[in-house]
Design a protein that fits this description.
alpha/beta, Rossmann fold, globular
């Protein structure tokens, strides 16, 4: 009986030792597996961080290209996209030279966002009307309007050239393609009205400036603004930005646009889908609009002005200039441009009188 008990005890000890050894072996095996997984996890984490960093960098580059002040990144991309940079540079230099030869007066306002915005008056003797002129994306009041400035002055127009936010000497961190800028123009309207309350007031813009003044028409300003002249404006910020990215950096994907939108939303509280020229045109039932566009525009397609024209619920007309590229309609067919503009003034100067 004693031997039997001793045998059982020995067997129990043996089983216990075997179980302990098995546990030790399993623990060691798990430790080896975990030790092999650590480098893999670290590699995956590093790859994830690199991917996130690359995505953030790409988003910032795209945002810089399309929504920040004119910069070296944008200049490089544009120089690659344009077929004849030298001709555009010569036109810009000539426009600036003409504007510099004219006597202008600097002014400024503080807008509703607290930004200081610069403007420049070009006075005329015995003015018949007043124009607020709004330049385009990465453009300027001299480069965009210098060539046409003598014409507007000589036909009796008191002209206020404004510098859009995030351009020139005006403050601002991001360009919103008219979404925020339209409120700046509304502030300029109040200022201009305080200076010349008796004059008919026209909003005039080129490219992004055209889209900006068209977006203003969606606000209740029909009792303040006589009419609008929009030269080569686009249909919506989202559409033109997508088109611009595609032209400058390759195809713009939905992910790219979503990332840029999110970046702008986080930084400045807006996104490019929240408003459009087409929405404003459907709201405008009173303010007459004169649309102008070149049929060889390779930056803002001429179909965009056609779409704006078709969407406009107010009295409107359109001039398509054959052979004109982006923003060059005045240069390509100066005579027709001037005649149609003067006829538009004559037709609507008295709209708000009596």
């Amino acid at each position: 009986m004693k031997k039997t008990n001793e045998a059982k005890s020995a067997a129990g000890v043996k089983r216990t030792n075997t179980s302990t050894n098995t546990q030790k072996t399993g623990t060691a095996s798990r430790k080896r597996r975990r030790s092999r997984l650590v480098p893999l996890k670290l590699a995956a984490l590093s790859a994830g961080c690199l991917a996130a960093g690359a995505a953030a960098l790409y988003t910032e580059v795209v945002t810089t290209a399309v929504a920040r002040r004119k910069n070296k990144v944008m200049d490089l991309l544009v120089s690659r996209a344009l077929s004849d940079v030298s001709t555009e540079q010569q036109t810009t230099e000539e426009s600036v030279r003409i504007m510099d030869s004219l006597p202008t007066e600097e002014t400024s306002i503080v807008n509703r966002d607290g930004l200081t915005l610069k403007g420049h008056w070009l006075h005329t003797e015995s003015p018949r009307r007043m124009l607020i002129m709004v330049h385009g994306w990465h453009g300027g009041w001299k480069s965009d309007f210098g060539v046409s400035a003598p014409f507007y002055r000589d036909c009796g127009s008191e002209v206020l050239y404004v510098e859009q936010r995030c351009h020139g000497e005006s403050e601002g961190k991001l360009i919103s393609y008219g979404i925020r800028e339209r409120f700046d123009v509304l502030d300029w309207i109040e200022y201009a009205r305080s200076v010349h309350p008796e004059l008919p007031l026209y909003l005039c813009g080129i490219s992004m400036g055209a889209a900006t003044v068209l977006m203003c028409a969606g606000d209740p300003i029909a009792d303040k603004v006589t009419a609008i002249i929009a030269d080569c404006g686009y249909t919506s910020p989202a559409e033109i930005i997508s088109s611009s990215i595609s032209g400058l950096m390759g195809k713009a994907t939905d992910v790219t646009m979503a990332a840029v939108n999110l970046n702008c939303k986080l930084r400045e509280g807006f996104d490019f889908d929240e408003y459009s020229t087409l929405i404003a045109m459907e709201k405008d039932t009173e303010i007459p609009v004169f649309f102008i566009h070149g049929d060889e525009d390779d930056f803002v397609p001429v179909r965009m002005s056609m779409e704006n024209y078709m969407a406009c619920c107010a009295p409107c007309e359109i001039l398509i200039v054959h052979g004109a590229n982006h923003g060059t309609s005045y240069l390509v067919d100066t005579d027709t441009y001037q005649k149609r503009t003067l006829a538009f003034f004559d037709k609507w100067d008295d709209r708000l009188k009596g």
